[in-house]
Amino acid sequence: MSVTAQEAIEAGRTPSSRPKGRQAAFGFIFASSVMNAISFGLMIPVLPALIRSFYGATSDASTAAAADWQFVFGLTWGVMQFFSGPVLGMLSDRFGRRPVMLISIFGLSLDFLVMAFAPSLVWLLLGRVLNGATAASFSTANAYVADVSTRETRARNFGWMASAFSVGFLFGPVIGGLLTTQDIHIGAFAIAGLRMPFVVAALLCAVNWFYGLLVLPESLTPDRRMGSFDWRRANPVASLALLRSHQDLLPLASINFMNQLAQQVLPGIFVLYTQLRYHWTLSFLSVTFFITGALGILVQGFVVGPTVRLVGERGAVIVGAAFGAAGFAIYAFAPNQWVYFAGMPVFALMGVMQPGLQGLMTQHVSGSEQGRLQGANQSTNGIAAILGPAFPLIFAFTLRHIPGLPGLPILIASALLGVAMLLSLRFARRGPPLAVA
Question: pTM of the entire structure?
């Protein structure tokens, strides 16, 4: 069958005409991503406290030391993502998505167990290293989605995948905070409350792995797989070369990088910024986490599809970048919490950007390169995570030298999305039909 005919068949498929097995497969991938996102979300309020617990009582000195280690943990995780993403992406192109996903999920379960029972900060860091090395389930899941989606359904499906992160952000921190209050004692065996979220995260991943082992079908047929595994192309630099090998893919990757880097600002300074400017308590912060997650689910689950149908994937990228830049600007200048809350729905509409961008990028590579593409994206995300700790440093500099503008780091994030929007106007376009290798 010719490429053109194959593409015509793919383009003519509708959700109702797609094989039921593919619908079931996407359902598992979505559920798997939700469970993994919740397992990561469980750690958000807990990991800094667990790090600080190794220094004894809470004090300025212990908090500062914990902040240093938090920087090391974040940097280490980003570096591991940068190096491991291409390897796991190419493995999924060579041997299929299913084995790589199952190995990654099983590895995450073991990693969380290491972190749950780590007797020292060195062991906790080791768990974080392993976590970064095996956290390819998200990128492999995206490659799986590209395999089982048509051009018309890709952006919508990627929107649902993005909503998985929102679910994790919605429930993970709340559940993690509650679990820290529950010490477990079974005879001589005891688990401190600060360790419980890691135990539950390990159990979630284990259940996910077992369910996938039983029901998950392979999405990449043997005739579409990479002919051989080439270690020379599995290093990050060679993996990023893929982004230069297809027309318009490198600009799209640059837009993706700016988006990922901009999103590093809130995890880095959100708690410190809102406590300083609006005097929010930790309990009130949990409410804002919930609202942010709920808005993300609404946008990614129910707005992405209609937006793509109305303005296309290119339009979704441009609209999402514009709303993200505007939302960040509102956050940066909001004089009180009510203006900040008013900016939340504006900022949430940025959620249409990533699914549209993913949909465009997957159209520029063949079926046998989808895993490699997601591995390259994971490497760029790793670079963003490595650079992300610069935002807290900028925040600290601003407080010392420009105290009247505490939102400067958020303004920088807004500017990044503004540049991404301009690049989208020039370079965001659908890819041509490509041969399936």
Answer: 0.68
